[in-house]
Every structure is written in structure tokens, then in C-alpha cells.
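ugh ok fine here u go
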Amino acid sequence: MELTRLIVKGGVISPGELREVVNIASEEGLDSISFGSRQDIIFPKGFKSLDKTTLGKHHFVYPDQKSGNNIVSSYVSTDIFRNTNWLTGNRFLYILEEFKEQPKLKVNITDPKQQLVPLFTGHLNFIASEHEDYWYLYIRLPKWEKMEVYPVLLYSWDLAKIYYEIEKIAGEDSVDIETLFALVSEALDTNNRTIDKPLNVPFYPFPYYEGMNRMGIDQYWLGLYWRNNLYDLDFLKEMCDLCFECKIGKICITPWKSFIIKGIPKDRKLEWEKFLGKRGINVRHSLLELNWHLPVAMEWALNLKTFLVRTLDQFDISTYGLNFGISEYNRDGHYFTSIVIEKNELPVALESIKIRDTYNVLFAKNFDPNTREYIVHSQDIDKLELPTILIELSRKYFEELGNTTSETTEKQQKKEKPQLDIYQCQECLTLYNSEYGDETQGIPKGLLFENLPETYCCSLCEAPKSNFRILETVEN
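structure:
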């Protein structure tokens, strides 16, 4: 499949830039564009006919070009999901701005406390540490068999120059992590810091990232997902105009073929809802439908997902916190979903014969993709067997959920917190945990759910207090 990609550095684009891209696509006779897994924009056909002098600063990568990898960042998740305290959206933007030349290697710049953007899918993976403005670096160059940890923490304003130095060295056959570190240290004067403890990546269930959701006290964020990953150009034009009117400066692309708009003013929320309603846009897909990663423009993958979602829906199966990937056979095994359905290659000798495709099913250790360790559950199975296997794995996930917490930690929690409770919104599955309260609504830590005012509503979807159901009560 020949596809043309538009590089969107860090997955961050302004409404003005997106409007220009939409106009270019319209002039080429397209009626939609798609999003890629590295937060780029995908076009369903090549742009060979374009006069490249009219493209301005837009960086297109054509099907016959091997160079040009996008930088993935978790800027999209700042201010709306869990985050490392010091890592703000502005810091992301400053760091991204330091990458002046288009990287030839895949670069990820991420916060380990969020779940929306994968941490380890790049050749170079910069991951925020607990120390302000310092980052871990996990490297797996194209010829390396395994990922290695760079032996020091790196300073925010050194990330770009360290990347470009590594890019120069990466083509050498004999380079290993020790040699790489020595060569970079010799070439650059950098403000490194000793690694005092290993990276800790906490496991949280995968977040719900669609719909109109509260952001702080007087703003909202909107997540939009279309199941076919074909975003209508006329819709995007009107949306960009609405962003201008609301003084929204950034649109964020996710790795899940969707995008997020942050900072919608509270007094413009109704206007946005009317805009979506007039267009017939559904912004409440179920988690069962939403949390899938598919290859772009692969009709067989979309058809398989549709079959699986419809079948699982008939069994009323909960997949909250899980995500799924569909892929052609991947010899390197580089995935970033909890459960992977892998389509086997058809033997060359059988290509002329019509036989049914077979699949392998893998799941991440502890169902956490950030472990980078996948376990094969089933091999060479028929499509009709897949729903039963996914149901089995979903049940296994819920049976094991929370079992990795150490006994000592559990005892300490019970001793330090004599009474806690956790309630869940039945509309969007948001949790209210009395251990943390609800900072967005001025609810202090330690306040039990029963003591919340009757006017309390869900911080995500604004469902009333009566819509919550108890999940857990802990007493000393």
C-alpha cells in the first residue's frame, strides 16, 4: 500500500496548519485524511503531482522515500491525564522545537505516568524521570537485538543535540551502548545526572480518550475518533474555524487514529456540542470499540476488528483498561497493546490457493504493554476462534488485576489509611477514590464518597453522584 505521510512533530499541529493541509488535500481531489500510529497524517494516495514549492514548511514523506520519521510525544496527554509534576505542555513544546532537522530514526519523548502514548516504540525513547528536567534514554537502534539503557540521566535542553550525535554514530556496525556513550560524551558537553534509581513505570488501566471532558475548572477537552480513520475534510475545515474563534492554539494527534482538542472554554461548550450534533458525530464509542490499534488503510484489519467487536458485544464482555492490536506477522515483535492478534504470513507455495487466514494471539506480561514482554497464548487459529480467546484473556486480565502489588505495600496502605472507598461512574467508568479526593472540584483528600455534597458530579462526563457505584471499601 503506497501512502504519503505528513510529519507532525510530536503530534502537535496548529488549527492554521491543519487548515492548510486540508486545503492541499482538497486540491488533490481527496475528501478525507487519516492519522497514523506515530501521530502523523496519512494520505490515501501519493502526492507526486504536487508542486513542492507550494507546500511551504509542511514536511511530506512520499512512498519512495525511506527517510523521515516522526517524533512521538505525550504532549497530547498533559493537563488531561496523570502526569509527572514538572513535565508541562510548554516544556514539551520547547524540547520539540530544539529538533530542527527531520530525524532519520524514530524518537519517542514521553511521560511514564500517562498511558495514552507508548513509551518504547522508538529507536530512541526519552522518558521523564522524577528529577525535574532530567530524562532516561532507552535505545534500540535498527541493528540491535535488544533495548539498552543509556547510563546517565539527560538534561531537557540536551536531548536534541544528543539525538543528532547518536544519529551520526548509529550507522556504524560495531557500535554498542558503551561505545555510544563514550563517543557522545567525547563529542558533546552535556549536563548529565547520575541514575540513582531505575525507571518505574506504574501500571494504570488504559484511559478513555474520547468525548467532551472537563479540564480544570473552566475548560474542556474534546477527543474525536472515527472508526474508519477517514476524517472528512469539510468537517475538519469547520472545526479549525471553530478553534480559531475559541482561541485554541493546538490540536493533538494520538497514536490511536484520533485527535484531541484541549482548552475549549466553558462558555463555548454548548456551541461545540451543537457543531458535533449537526454533523451527526458520535463521541461516546464504547471502550470495546475504541481501544484498538490497526494498520492504516488495511481493509482486512478493519473488517476483522468489526467482526470481533460485534461478536464480543453480543456476549456483553467488559474490556475496560485493555487495548488490542491487529497486525501482520511482526518478526521483531514490537507492539504496544495489551493483546495482539497477529495475522500469519501465507506460505509462498500456497499463495495461488484460496485458504483461510490463520492468526496468533499474544498478550503482554501483566497485560501491561510497557513491560515489552509478550506471551504467546494461541497459534495458527481460525478467525472464528478469536472471540472465545479474547473473552478468555479479558477474564484473565480482571482476575489478575492488582495482584502485582506487594504485600508489604498493601499492609502499609491499610495502616496509614484507616478508611477509604472507591466509587465508579457507570456512565464513563471514571473512579472517585477518597484517598485522592477530586482536586478539579475542590474536594480534599480523605473525604469519603458518602460525605460528598449531593451536587457532586463526575469530573469527566458530569453524570450525577447517584450514577456512581461502589467498587471497594477499605477499613483498618
